[in-house]
Amino acid sequence: MSQRIEIVSAGTKRDLGRSVGATAILDMSRIAGVVDYRPEELVFTAKAATLLSEFEAMLAARNQMAGFEPADWAPLFGAAAGKQTLAGVVAADVCGPRRVKYGGVRDHVIGCRFINGAGELIRAGGPVIKNVTGFDIPKLMCGAFGTLGVLTELTFRVLPRPQNAATLVLRDCAPHAGLAALIAAAQLPVEASGLAYCPHDTTPYSGAFIRVDGTTAAVSEKLGLLKQQFHALDFTMLDAVETDQLFRTIGDGSVIGADGDIWRLCVPPAAAAKAIARAGADVWYADWGGALLWLRMPATAQSAEKLRAIAAELGGHATLFRASAEARSTIGVFEPEPPVRAGLTKALKQAFDPHNILNPGRMFPYL
Amino acid sequence: MIDLPAPDRQVIARRDQIAAALKAIVPDGVASDPASLRAFDRDALTAYAQLPLVCVLPATAEQVSAVLKFAQREGLRVVPRGAGTSLSGGALPLADGILLGLSRMNRILELDYDNRCVVVQPGVTNAAVTRAVQARGYYYAPDPSSQIACTIGGNVAENSGGIHCLKYGLTTHNLMGVELVLINGERLRIGGKFAGAGGLDLLGIICGSEGLLGIVTEATLRILPRPPVTRTLLIAFSGASAAGRCVAGIIAAGIIPAALEFMDRRCIDAVERFCAPGYPPDAEAILIAELDGMPAEVADQCRDLSGIAGQCGATAIRGCADEAERARVWSGRKAAFGAMGRLKPDMLCMDGTIPRAALPQMLEKISALSDHYGLICCNVFHAGDGNLHPLIVFDCMKEGELERAEAFGADILKLCVEMGGVLTGEHGVGVEKKALMGEMFSDADLNQQQRLKCAFDAASQLNPGKVFPVLHACVELGRMHVRDGRVPFGNLPRM
Ligand SMILES: Cc1cc2nc3c(=O)[nH]c(=O)nc-3n(C[C@H](O)[C@H](O)[C@H](O)COP(=O)(O)OP(=O)(O)OC[C@H]3O[C@@H](n4cnc5c(N)ncnc54)[C@H](O)[C@@H]3O)c2cc1C
Q: CA-CA to B318 of 20 to 30 Å: which in A39, A104, A237, A238?
């Protein structure tokens, strides 16, 4: 019998994904520390379990930031905020609202070192932004939940922090109008860096939120364009500090609250209104311009069937984000794969972890 | 010199039979006579040519699937091809291989402005995508200089970049989904008009896989609203290192221009003679910077960028007054490869990436190597992201010049790795750089990559002989894992 190793760094997201039924825990938390930060190259390399907070503080000190705006989901799972590590963020694909402008975690991890299931130390990618030498394995590691390798070092591309930011809030709009406003905003050349919608009775925020950033001059120009577009609607504005708080709340999922099961449904943005009407969640909100729907819905087979039918019809996928361990194992967490794709996933698992020892079963029974 | 897998004589002997079988699948798209095959015997790495066994040009994904099923059943090798503009020999045919051309699949299937994407077949050219959406004020950001010819299928396979990828990313950052046909003929949709993967990020490894994992038969691409204002600055320097300092200064100041291109004295001269873009005659180096966005934002950034250039000793800073002048400035940059033909008949285009800070040092070393090899090298770079394109010009007909040019190129790429960079920024490994992969990766790294390949194509039928310096059989790679993870002779370098 081979071991079933659960890879843990800070352990803030152990309840995300299926449970591994580990026979051993590999505690990676000591594999930490910054290796190389070159602000003028926009490149940052650190050992995998370096705290995200340390990474963010170092970037902030040089007026830079991570383009994918990592969220902190720990409180959603009853863990303490501020403890998560780079490896955890990468493996669980923890990406915030800024994805609409800069892309996801996978678009910012340019290199990595990891240990495969045969115990070999592998390097992939590199320390420069533009690189097509060999397969883009760093991308494959993003969102793989440690099922393909134990990350030991990560290299990120980082970005200059915009001088200023602001949010245009469209108050009092019904879901259909609010989601349509996000689509309209995405079509304007304002490069919105946040496009979210929270329905009427959501606390602490409700309305359609359009974030813009850039130089102070750029922000006021972009707001001008947005006001012109939405002049017929009732709007207000949030300054940089309020904007920051708002979008942190949006990314962290705390809008949903501490109780209840959570699903995340990804659909084409223009199909969001339809998806919401069909899902019938009692609490919900939209991020990524409508491409990501956070839903409070029971972790039952019926919910799964309904959401997966919506995803199949409109295009997309549903994830059972927060639920009991039992529900996660029986209902499944990630979108079930059609046979051809499952075949490839199994073959990839075999290629990286031939003995099936690294977080086995975390994503699918076979991965 | 490159070595390709030894051709199988028995397969070559069955050419007519194989052509007939392919004709049954694609009645109007099979070529097997030498005269027709000649058109496909090389890509833009022109020093290497090889007639394929047969060429098939399917018109539908069903036909692609049937061709691959046939190839798998018969154990035949397949080389995918788009427009054949690869600079690394990615589409170089095999004597016993089917050349699978996707150029006939050239329809734009859907323009979806609400979801900000388009769906296209693989043979659509890069430029055609922007052309299809520009009337509505949109464009497709990745813009390789070959964009009027190269196909989206080729762009996906090479993860192509372009002048504007500093701000807007490479193909991989603008690719939302593909339909992929596997070697067994099965068709698979990965991604689409939605975000995220919902499983492993297969799209991430497909993009840039150089035709080794599957055939792309459809792509969903992100389109962007065109920025209201674009300003182009031409900045001259009396030395290359001042230009290098300026690049570092711009990035350090938090400015990410849409494009930031560099040309050295030799390249400026060649381009001036070729198409007279009007670059300052006394410049030792120039930068072309492009800023786009909202009007006041662009004005601010132009001012800041000009200030930095001034501090770095720029001898002239010229803003393009109108669209015509802008087009003229860019015409020189875009003609750089073509202009080399005036210097010598043949050219090798290198493609390493280095940390930006190493630019001045790298230029000095290239200049020393140029003297050493007695060959001219013109430098044009995507300076903003450290992606170099040293252009080595030579004459194939002169005894030994090709070999010297290749050795010179290899030295440049090794230097890139030494300076903390990589072998290829956007052109791919292909056959051209495969022998150098060991400079960057250990045996274990390369074996891991090959095992990934095996997951898609266990018999190595898709584009074999590309990317990897040594092609291991998949069973051989698998065998390393026997005995509970204890690799035999674990302390010896493997294979
Ligand atoms: C003058 C010139 C300028 C260039 N400028 C740039 C530049 O600025 N930036 C840049 O990145 N590149 C540049 N290139 C390189 C080249 O244009 C790109 O690599 C391009 O993406 C190749 O596209 P293609 O259709 O010609 O593909 P091909 O050359 O036909 O094929 C390239 C690779 O893709 C594979 N392939 C093709 N189609 C498919 C498919 N449908 N499915 C799976 N695999 C497939 C082939 O097997 C091969 O490995 C330039 C080339 C030239 C000649």
A: A39
